[in-house]
Automatic annotation (TrEMBL), chain A:
Region: Disordered, residue numbers: 306-364
An annotated GO BP: positive regulation of transcription elongation by RNA polymerase II
UniProt protein name: [RNA-polymerase]-subunit kinase
GO cellular component: cytoplasm; transcription factor TFIIK complex
Molecular function as annotated in GO: ATP binding; cyclin-dependent protein serine/threonine kinase activity; RNA polymerase II CTD heptapeptide repeat kinase activity
Residue numbers annotated as active site: D137 (proton acceptor)
ATP-binding recorded as keyword: yes
Domain Protein kinase residue range list: 15-295
Organism lineage string: Eukaryota, Fungi, Dikarya, Basidiomycota, Agaricomycotina
Automatic annotation (TrEMBL), chain B:
Regions annotated as coiled coil: 155-229
Chief subcellular location: nucleus
Compositionally biased region (Low complexity): 19-28, 267-276
Compartment list: Nucleus
Species in which this protein is naturally found: Lentinus brumalis
PANTHER family per the UniProt record, alphabetical: CDK-ACTIVATING KINASE ASSEMBLY FACTOR MAT1 (PTHR12683)
Protein name as it appears in the record: RNA polymerase II transcription factor B subunit 3
Amino acid sequence: MDAVERANLERQRRWTKDQKIGEGTYAVVYRGRELATGRKVAIKKIKVGQFKDGLDMSAIREVKFLRELKHQNVIELLDVFSSKKNLNLVLEFLDTDLELVIKDRSLVFLPADIKSWMAMTFRGLEFCHRNFILHRDLKPNNLLIASDGQLKIADFGLARDFADPGYKMTCQVITRWYRPAELLWGCRYYSTAVDIWSVGCIFAELMLRTPYLPGETDMDQLKTIFRALGTPTEEDWPGHTKLPDYVPVGQFPKTPLRDLFTAASADCLNLLSKCLIYDPKRRISAKDALNHPYFFALPYPSHPSKLPKPAKKESGIPLEEVDGNTDMSGPGPGVKANPPNKLKRKNSDDLGGRPVARRLDFTK
Amino acid sequence: MAQRNSWLRGTTIRKSGPSTSASTRTSTPQLPSTSMSIFAGGVKDPSGRTVEYIDMNEKCPVCDSDAYLKPGLRLLVSSCYHKLCNGCVEVLYATGSEVCPTKGCNVINRRLSYTPQTFEDLTVEKEVAIRRRLAKEFNKRREDFPDLRSYNDYLEEVEEIAFNLINDIDVAETEARIARYHQENAELIELNKKREQEYQRYLQEQEEMERQERELRAQELRRIETEEREEREKGRQAIIDKLETSDKDAARLVAKSRMETQRRASARAASSSSASFNQSNARLLRTRATQSAVVPDVPHVPLQDNYYAYDDMFQMRETYHDPVSEAVRRDREGIMRAGGYRVDQAWERALRFAVAGLDTAPLSGMPAPPPEPMAVDSEGPADAVMVSA
């Protein structure tokens, strides 16, 4: 046994696997414990053996970024070790996610709760952006919630660091409903603003309790966006007609946000509108968002421990994060990092014939 | 002795509301009052009513008459906390302001400064009045202070002021203190008043909602009950009809219809349990409201980690001499502009990476360190990476 193997074994001994709590396309998740402290963890076993082309891209991305990031509002990767031919990621154990919370109709959200979740999301995102990482797959079910109510950004399977000037990035990222117009039009040079758009959509979803911009196809997504926010003009968004996949999708008038969000405060709508600005250069940054008057106005954000949570028996982490969640339907000319086919998004409405991750069921 | 037991004989009178009407005072024999003034004031209980304290044995210190001799007698309390009967007040203050008739007290009173007595002990009366007055001004909350310590200091100060006023210690100086406090915190006082009102309104709304829900539920129950009764009637009728017409075994028919009823009852129970879902919302909101008193919400703090982005170690410039990104910046086809890619983010990243390790002490105890691969310019760390244009 050489030194590396010995070190690996030593790491492996620090954790125990208790029971399987879910399975995705390329990983199995177990509930486990840290032997020394008894602390609950989630162990994600990545199946290596069955893929010819080696380790899955999103697993590599996840390890690469989570190893570096340590923040209250980002999921913590505690350890990585290998067993037999598998790679194991030891992650913080989190009770539930924001999607389950939004969907649970028996929960009532106060304006202060939404403020608190938004503040935590922006804090986590600001930390990623400060460390030059784009998350590129923000959506409610990637925002996990710990037992103390803290919200944590998870699933770094599509994350990447900022591109060097002139390097192309793929535009086939971010779950469609949360994808900004520049990516839908095939933009290859983008920045932190793409994540902010997703947060804006999540913000709206928290208030509406239903997805804000649910497009059925990429084209329909653009239409849905413009129907809600109006078709951008050259003045709104200079240069957007030059984007690679630009196609005009028709003219829609701009309707005031107030019409849909009748109960929201003025500050709240102001921040929402700044997250949903078409021009990525004018879209608010995570840091500026955290300093927005909305967060300082009364009511104060709810203390995390008081935030509503689904009832215990229903709580199961849908570790959706075990499978990549991007829609790869568009060919995307010259995608540099073309993730393998199995990353295809499983969306309840477009299940047609693709390999689909099983819906994880943690209710034992 | 009489003093100690006077609470036994003391009668309290509940008035119907803030308007003091004499007709409700049925418990004491009395003549219709001849006085034209209505003595309002006194301490109200939470429902907005004043409970007046009346001791049948007590005498007016000036005219020496008591309730036995003069049935309409009420002893009123002045702002200097001395008693006087209503008759004497009318007479003494007929012309306006006058010095308090109690010996040694030089306070000038008017008729309106006499209020009905609420508590037997006048020091309590005084303390309550003072504390009510202070509570209006000193309404800061825990959230208004950065830490528990300063909040406790504030509470201590309020208590000291209250103590001084109650026991007449340095009254002038204490009043000045209150005025100063009021001046300094006028805005916050107003804000807290509003908050308090909002909270009250919120609780009222909650109560209203619950009341409506209770009504709805009661209606639902009544409806179900009548339905059930009708059904039972119908069932009984059906059995009789069947027994009349069919030639089957009577016992089996009865058993069958019984089973049917049971099945229907269980279906009803299932449907009513889903109706109870709505009521939980109001309760939930209410528990949230009470919870917020336990774990207070704290004001927003934008960043909660120890944010440090090496801002002090470099200064970003407008632009740099950077041939690599030249094409991106010029952007001839205009494809970069709309996408929101920012070259300055790449520059900032390069700069921050360059300066991040600068003040890390070199490892000690290592074999001779290899020569520095990158020479740091004397001009400053920023220029180590990029030469400014």
